[in-house]
Amino acid sequence: MEKETIVDNQRVATGKKLKKMFGHIDYRNPPELCVIRDVVSLTSDKWSILILLYLGYFPVLRFNKLKKYVYGISNKVLSERLKVLEGNGYIKRQMYPEVPIRVEYSLTPFGQKYVAKLLELTEWMQLNNPIILSNKQKFQIK
């Protein structure tokens, strides 16, 4: 019975948070700024998440090292994602006047806070991976 109470309490708490987030929205006149669409979407694509997680693990990385770790990303996409992340304050870019020019990337304090939240999600995903795989297999999603 205790587990049911915990689940019920979580459901109620989640419902309250969602009501706070969406309860004031008039869907006939949507707001100009939507935090989820306009802010979170900047860093929720698969490449940005991996870039941020690797920069959380390695304090400083250069472009080619990042490209090596973020397997499968093209130079163009990596460059674009780094510019977006830098422009929105998640990472900083440090350029050194050397020949050849050396550029290093690292997380800002703001980016570090975001990575802490990402880690909560990735821990949840790792914990629930057997359920996720079972559900995929059950519905034959490939």
Determine the oligomeric state from the structure.
single chain
Mean pLDDT across the residues is 86
Helix content: 55-70%
Strand content: 5-15%
Shape: globular
Q: Regions with pLDDT < 50 over 5+ consecutive residues?
A: none
CATH architecture annotation: Orthogonal Bundle
Order of helices and strands: HHHEHHEEHH
Number of domains: 1
Determine the CATH superfamily.
Winged helix-like DNA-binding domain superfamily/Winged helix DNA-binding domain
The top level CATH class name: Mainly Alpha
Number of DSSP E strands? 3
Radius of gyration over all CA atoms, rounded? 20 Å
- CATH topology term: Arc Repressor Mutant, subunit A
Q: What is the makeup of the main sheet? A: 3 strands, antiparallel
Instruction: Enumerate the strands of the largest sheet in spatial order, edge to edge or round the barrel.
Output: 1-3-2
Write the layout of secondary structure elements.
Blueprint: H1 2-22, H2 35-38, H3 46-57, E1 61-62, H4 63-69, H5 75-87, E2 91-96, E3 102-107, H6 109-127, H7 129-138
Antiparallel strand pairs: 1-3, 2-3
Helix pairs in contact: 3-6
